[in-house]
Amino acid sequence: MGESAGTPPKSPEGDAIQAQLVAVAEDWAAAIVSNDAARIAEFIADDWVIVSESGVSAKAYFLSLVESGELTHSAMNLVDQARVRVYGDTAVLTVRMTNTAHYQGRRFDADEWTTDVFVKRDGRWLCVLSHITAAAPA
User: Which residues, other chains included, contact 77 with Cβ-Cβ below 8 Å and sequence gap of 6+?
Assistant: First the structure.
């Protein structure tokens, strides 16, 4: 499958929201690299889950791994321009990311496509769902 994301209609308001969501994603990536569970939690809703090749993991489980030091990240980078679509108080952000994680003492370098679903609650964008898919080798 190739790139066919298309270009959303341009509007000053839409551009501002897209920029805001990309900034949230970048700040969240920095929080993940900080390995501070409380800081990471500021970006995700209570009902957030992450879907990966190993299944569905809830917020409490993910944060417990970070708190225990069992899961850490030393790098998390947005590789490409994010695709953002806004549907009222819901937004979908898809971007390719690379990261370096350490889980149970083993290092993992990942190149992934991530899709995050955000909802606007009390004036803040919070992620409710993250889905990661390994990027195909070049």
Answer: 29, 97, 98, 99
| Interatomic CA distance for residues 109 and 45, integer angstroms | 26
Compare 65 and 12 and report the one with higher pLDDT: 65
Quick: pLDDT tens for 24-43: 999 999 999 999 999 999 99
What global pTM score does this model have?
0.89
Task: State which amino acid sits at residue 53.
Answer: E
Q: How far apart are CA 101 and CA 71, in angstroms?
A: 7
Question: CA–CA separation, 12 vs 18, rounded Å?
Answer: 10
pLDDT of residue 1 exceeding 50, the answer is: no
- Please name the residues in contact with 126: beta carbons below 8 A apart, sequence gap of 6 or more: 43, 44, 45, 48, 118, 119, 120
* Cβ–Cβ < 8 Å for 95, 80: yes
Structure tokens at 97: 């990311």
The sign one gets for the Cα dihedral 13, 6, 79, 77 is positive
pLDDT on residue 138: 78
The region, left, alpha or beta by phi > 0 then psi within -120 to 50, assigned to residue 71 is beta
